Automatic annotation (TrEMBL):
One of the GO biological process terms: methylation
Domain of life: Archaea
Entry function: Catalyzes the reversible interconversion of serine and glycine with a modified folate serving as the one-carbon carrier. Also exhibits a pteridine-independent aldolase activity toward beta-hydroxyamino acids, producing glycine and aldehydes, via a retro-aldol mechanism.
Pfam families according to UniProt: SHMT (PF00464)
Protein name as it appears in the record: Serine hydroxymethyltransferase
EC number: 2.1.2.-
First-level EC class: transferase
GO molecular function, one term: glycine hydroxymethyltransferase activity
Organism: Ignicoccus islandicus DSM 13165
SUPFAM superfamilies: PLP-dependent transferases
Oligomeric and partner information: Homodimer.
Amino acid sequence: MEDLINRIVSIVSEHDKWRHSTINLIASENVMSPLAESLYLNDMLHRYAEGKPRKRYYQGTKYIDEIELLASDLMSKLFSANYAEVRPVSGTTANGTVFYALGGCGKKALIPPVQAGSHVSHTKFGILGALGIEHIEMPYDKDNFNIDVDKAVKMIEEVKPSFVVLGGSMYPFPHPVKEIAEAAHAVGAKVVYDAAHVLGLIAGKALSNPLTEGADVMTASTHKTFPGPQGGVILTNDRDLYKKISKIVFPVFVSNHHAHRLPSLAVTAIEMMNFGEEYAKQIVSNAKALAEELHSLGVKVLGEKLGFTRTHQVILDLSDRGGAAEAVVRLEEANIIANKNLLPWDPPDAIANPSGIRLGVQEMTRFGMKEGEMKEIAKFISDVLNGKDPKEVREKVIEFRREYVKVHYGYELNEVALKRFKEYLEMALNLTL
Ligand SMILES: *Cc1c(COP(=O)(O)O)cnc(C)c1O
């Protein structure tokens, strides 16, 4: 037993050390600030708080109530939304809640195709399909990597869907919210903007706020470009919709809602109020720098005539290099973590070896990297893609990464937080410090 326990501990330890020595370019991940991470470990992770603050089904929730109200209030302010629902435990749960509120069995939703970057939760394989809602593919313009507005407007008029979904998982260029919202509203359809990937860029005003552009509701994950704890959020100005949504989150999609993440969420919201603009601007600038350098090193990058990217993402096209499956494994051997991704022209069954690699620079930006560092990363990547031994590159990556360990655009533990953290370790883990 002791051996097994030690193995479990060392798996965690090896994971932690490994991931801190890699260049992580997974576009849907990030790290919290030290303050937010320290607060993540708290007794709320053992508790239930079903229902809404001050209207719970169990006793013992007075501090959870206070923190949930605070977190909702801060998220509302940050996104200039009247209502924020912070109980969904993930972006998928947030989508499920909103899709259920707007649709239900037999209803139709107009959503871009999967190859154009839609998330699995938008499809028949995910929560949309599980709810019995039909995914009708929104016309997509493969040359501009975006929705074909004219055709989409026509289709909205013909199909009269219950709702339209914008936003996605592969998302180098923002969708045209205004034009689509006008057409949708004209036929009584609601507009859902899924900001899972770009919530941090919206918070930092690098992208315009979809709610002011015409979206009725915004769903998101709170841990991608928004550098908070893993979780979900729903934001809206529509009072009736908010009420409906709040009645669906619990009891339909969550019972316990992982309240221990809410202090970290509240802290991250404050960090985004104070450092969000600087952070978001640097992300977009870094993404452009990475794309340009990769391009000049001979790697095919999507969207050259559109300036490669307007978000945190850079999409590589490896269709003339035999696809992405082997490339991402070789990159991992070099301690560069990225994922293979379908491109708009790939058939859906190309999922095992699609043409694309999706890169996101948000986490490395958070560790203080700027345009110059992006050029070095581009060189590491092109070396691996051009056949250099990944083990050789790995040595350099580990050396390079050592210089970037401090999290920027967020708070360290102050005296009060350090005292609380020590007390927690003593009390809950029975340690003597
Ligand atoms: C990641 C993602 C989600 C789901 O987020 P989880 O928090 O992982 O459940 C939903 N929509 C889009 C567009 C995403 O990229």
